[in-house]
Amino acid sequence: MTRFFMRLFGVLRKETLQILRDPSSIILALVMPMVLLVIFGYGVSLDAEHVPVVLVNDDKGPMSRELEARFTNSANFQVRTAESMAQARELILARKAEGIIHLQNNFTAILEGAGSGTGSGAPVQLIINGTDANRARLIEGYLKTIGAKWTALRTARGETAMVPQVSISQRIWFNEAAISRYFLIPGLITLIMTLIGILLTALVIAREWERGTMEAMLVTPLRKADILLGKILPYYFLGMFGMGMSVVVGTTLFGVPFRGSVGTLVALSSLFMLTCLGLGLFLSAAIRVQFVAAQVSIVVGFLPAFFFSGLIFDLESTPKFIQIISYIFPARYFVTIGHTLFAAGDVWPVLRPNALVLAFMALLFLGLAFRNISKRLE
Predict the structure, then answer these.
(1) How many CB atoms lie within 10 A of CB 312?
(2) 61, 176, 253, 297: least CB-packed within 10 angstroms?
(3) Are 119 and 113 in contact (CB under 8 A)?
(4) For helices 330-343 and 348-372, what crossing angle results, to 10°?
(5) Rounded to whole angstroms, how far apart are CA atoms 227 and 231?
(6) Is the Cβ–Cβ distance between 255 and 226 less than 8 Å?
């Protein structure tokens, strides 16, 4: 047992010195997460703010002007007025506006008829650029919300006798403020851990073969288990430190709520980190060429974590075969874990199945890495 720890300590010391000698490892593990957090936290938002829209008010009455002011004073929209629908359409075609709000010339008359009980609600025409369907639905929802709040305020003041057939009382669970940053930051932690776990470790064994130091290791009493543990542990602690730093920055700088327990986060993050480390070491041991291993790690690690994990795109809205393919990538399961821990807490019916899949993947990739670490030159 003492010899085992001596061998392990030797490999750990060698790998730690290699990390300290290679500034790129430190930059990728510590600086890159902060850069990504700042970019996604400040620069990327799925919320619709200051959306350019055109308002055409053919009525000019006091009620239409009051509703116009509601749209103009909203932080979600940047409203410019047009004298006619033709002018508004030109702005849409020129991509200077993303929507048209049209208050027709009988707007006030219809509302006054509704107030006396002789009419129905006055329609407001919405024309939205549907090139980006998700953004279009978001804009539509904001516009309808403003109109509904204005109608409710008039009803409360007794200015209308309209009684809606259906009364809708809505509530948003888990992200009450509907801030996209609260959704992006937990998913971004998955991306950061993938970068550290797969991209860095995909180089470690391939680097030994390219530099000729693997031959020197083969003549030592080191065993395959010693090499595997010695390569994994430094990057495990580096990755977990990067994860912890990302969580602290996300919760303090960006105010992302964290409702789960720290122990659960550490345990499940360890499963995901071991999965990434196992995959990276397997690629490094199997390919033995740093450049090729790095390219393959991006294709099978980073890109799937970005596109097939639910970090940016809602997987439920993708084709069925894309949803099926996404199940083979570890990032999908940890994105679900991250969103659950941050937004809802320790919801084990959600966490448990994803954790079991990650545990299976960790054992699979570590086993493949162990099998491909050779003690022979051929």
Answers:
(1) 15
(2) 176
(3) yes
(4) 150
(5) 6
(6) no
